[in-house]
């Protein structure tokens, strides 16, 4: 019996013990096993084919399509400290932020209210957006916790089910205000949903208004396998997301990158070392060709994708103005 089936059986057996105390233990266990088996079969159906329903016609807005090996989000997510690189101790003691103005670049204004998020929450959020992309925003997207954990490359035991649920609660509980040029979005990153306690399946929606932040080229894709290969290197993950919004990044000050990654170490030398180490990790996963570190700045040389190469060639061919 697998772990998920065992946990579901124990859950149902406990419920039967409370609701039908006169049942003998053998019958109670048999009924619990039967119920768990049925529930998990339903969960597997959801995992194989996510379903969207209840689509409001007036909100039929669909996200852009991106390649299966990519994940995407608005630039405001990648160019701000909305998802900082927290260490284990910081995750255990997340502060509650009240209309906190977050560090951002590129003319963005980002304010956040809620329990502080981190890069592992961004991993979850990117997978949710990817699940939602074939459907109109505002539709109900159904998925299993098991399937989402597998997509994240994480173990599927009970403790990770609870960590996943905690991440969903944080994503739902937080309220963001994002101003990107003439568009200002305020609201939650995801809407509320339903969790089936037995099958560990979810139903949730994403606010259709959120699609406005994907308009006018104000979004970017990141390479899923590169991000996964970075593992627990949260600082490298934050910089990977930031640089993915660029074709040719200019040199950046160490403090700028540290602020984007949400690094709070007061030791300036250590912050610089952490940023350089993160660039080494980005090079090791084949995201960077190389980087140039000077005493004050660091310049990343991104290994261009096919699309970026086309963009660069097109730009070079464009006649200069006289």
Tell me what you see in this structure.
This protein is α+β, with helices and mostly antiparallel strands. It folds into two domains: 3-47, no CATH class; 50-317, no CATH class. Helices cover 43% and strands 21% of the residues. The chain has twelve helices and 15 strands. A four-stranded antiparallel beta sheet has the order 1-7-11-10. The chain has a four-stranded antiparallel beta sheet with strand order 4-5-8-9. A hairpin with a 4-residue loop joins strand 10 and strand 11 (201-204). Helix 1 (3-19) packs across helix 2 (25-48). The longest helix has 24 residues, at 25-48. It is elongated and about 85 Å long. It starts with a helix and ends in a 5-residue tail after the last helix. Mean pLDDT is 85; it is low at 55-59.
Which H/E pattern describes the elements? Answer: HHEEEHHEEHEEHHEEEEEHHEHHEEH
Let me know the average pLDDT: 85
Shape: elongated
Percent of residues in β-strands = 15-25%
- Rg, nearest Å: 22 Å
N-to-C terminal Cα separation, in Å?
74 Å
């Amino acid at each position: 019996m697998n772990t998920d089936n065992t946990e579901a059986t124990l859950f149902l057996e406990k419920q039967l013990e409370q609701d039908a105390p006169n049942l003998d233990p053998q019958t109670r266990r048999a009924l619990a096993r039967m119920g768990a088996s049925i529930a998990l079969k339903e969960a597997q159906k959801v995992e194989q084919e996510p379903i969207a329903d209840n689509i409001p016609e007036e909100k039929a807005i669909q996200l852009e399509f991106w390649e299966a090996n990519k994940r995407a989000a608005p630039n405001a997510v990648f160019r701000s400290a909305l998802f900082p690189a927290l260490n284990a101790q910081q995750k255990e003691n997340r502060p509650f932020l009240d209309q906190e103005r977050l560090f951002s670049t590129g003319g963005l204004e980002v304010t956040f209210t809620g329990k502080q998020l981190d890069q592992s929450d961004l991993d979850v959020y990117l997978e949710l957006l990817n699940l939602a992309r074939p459907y109109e925003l505002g539709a109900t997207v159904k998925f299993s916790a098991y399937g989402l954990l597998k997509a994240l490359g994480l173990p599927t035991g009970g403790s990770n089910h609870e960590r996943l649920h905690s991440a969903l609660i944080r994503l739902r509980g937080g309220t963001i205000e994002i101003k990107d040029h003439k568009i200002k979005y305020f609201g939650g990153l995801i809407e509320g949903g339903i969790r089936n306690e037995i099958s560990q399946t979810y139903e949730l929606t994403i606010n259709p208004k959120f699609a406005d932040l994907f308009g006018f080229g104000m979004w970017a894709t990141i390479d899923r396998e590169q991000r996964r290969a970075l593992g627990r290197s949260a600082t490298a993950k934050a910089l990977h997301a930031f640089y993915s919004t660029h074709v040719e990044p200019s040199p950046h000050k160490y403090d700028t990158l540290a602020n984007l990654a949400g690094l709070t170490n007061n030791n300036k030398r250590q912050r610089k070392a952490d940023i350089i180490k993160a660039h080494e990790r980005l090079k090791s996963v084949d995201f960077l060709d190389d980087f140039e570190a000077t005493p004050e700045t660091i310049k990343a040389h991104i290994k261009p994708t096919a699309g970026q190469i086309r963009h660069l060639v097109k730009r070079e061919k464009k006649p200069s103005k006289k």
